[in-house]
Amino acid sequence: MTTVQAQDHAAEAIAAGLCEEASRRTGLVDFGPDDFRMPLAMVAAHLTSPLLSDVGRASLREDLVVALVGRLVRENEWKKNPGWQERKIDRPLIICGIPRTGTTALHKLLSVDPQFQGLEHWLTSWPMPRPQRTEWPQQQGYRNAVAALEKLFELIPQLRISHEIVADEVDECLEILRLDFIANRFPSIYMLPDYDAWFQAQDETPLYRRLADTIRLIGLHDNRTWLLKNPGHFGHLDELFEAFPDARVVITHRDPVKSLGSLGSVLAGGRQMFYADPQIDTIGPRELTYWSRAKEATDRTRCWLPAGQILDVDHLDFHRAPIGTVRKIYDHFGLTLSDEVATSMEAWLASNPADKHGAHSYRLEDYGITADRIRSLLGEG
C-alpha cells in the first residue's frame, strides 16, 4: 500500500467513525446518496493534522458530526413526508453579496415581516417540516442548536460582535449546502488547501437542487413567500436560477476594502482559536481570489438575466436609511410593506444596533492583502 493509499484509507476510517457518531445521536442510519463520502473524508483527514489545536480539532469534529446529523434527519424526514416533492417555491426573495456587505442585517430586518418564511438556524441542522413556534423548545433539533451556540460563543466570544447567530432566527443557505460537504464553509474556516482546490472546481448545480428540495421539506405546511440569504450565492447565480427560476435577488454592495477587512477579522477569530500558528496572513489572499472569481461569474450571469430580476443595494444607503432601502426593495419586486410591519422593523433596528455587542475593528495588513490589490480585483464595490 502506498503512502497516499494509506492516508486515504485512514481518512475513510475517520469519516466512518464520524458517521457512526451521527447515527448514535439520531438512531438513524440512512445518509442518502454516497456522493458526500469522498468530500467528507477529505475534510475529516484534517482531524489528524498537527496544525490543529485541541480546540480546533474538537470544533472541526463537531462541525462534521452536526452536518452528518442533518443529512440523516433530512433523509428520514423526506421519507416521512412524501408530499414535499409537490411543494412549489414561488418567487423567493434571495439576498446575496460579498460577505460583510450587510447581507445579515438586511436579511434579519426583512424577516420581521410575517409575509416571509425563512431558514431558522436550528432547522438548517435538523431539517424537518417547520413545527409551530410554540413547539420548538420541545424539539430535539432546537435544543441541540441552542446548546451548540452557547458552546460556540463561549469558545469565540468575539463572534457575537461580528456575526451573531440565534437558534430561532433566520440563517444562511450555506448551513444547508454544507450537508453535502461541498461548501465554502470548510476552507474558509479551516486550512484545507487541497480540499479548497478540489471544492472550487466542483459543479454546485446538484447542491442547489438539494437546497431547493430541503426548502420544500421545511416549508411543507407554510404558504408564505420564502426569504433566503447566502453571501455565497454571489458567484453561483447560474446554479441559483436553475433551482429557483423566478427568484427575486438582492445583491448587496460595499467598499470592498472594508468588506474584505471585516471578513478577515471574522475568519481570523476562529483561526486563532483553532491553530497554534493561525497564519492569518493567508486569509486575505484566499478570500480575495475566491470573491473576485465570484464577481466575474456574477457579471457574466447578469448579461443574460431578464431586466428587473436583480436589485443592487448599497451598504451605505442601507446604513443611512434602512427602511427607505426596504421600501426600495419592496417597490422593485412588487411587495407590500404595511405601516404595521414598517413600525416593527423600526423597533427591531432600535433593539439591534450595529455595535450591539461591541465595536468590530480590524487591520487589513494583518490578513496579507492591501487596499490597492483589493481594488484592482473588486473595483470600488
TrEMBL record:
Q: Where are the transmembrane segments?
A: none
Q: Which protein are we looking at?
A: Sulfotransferase
According to its UniProt entry, this protein's organism is Novosphingobium cyanobacteriorum
A Pfam family name for this chain?
Sulfotransfer_3
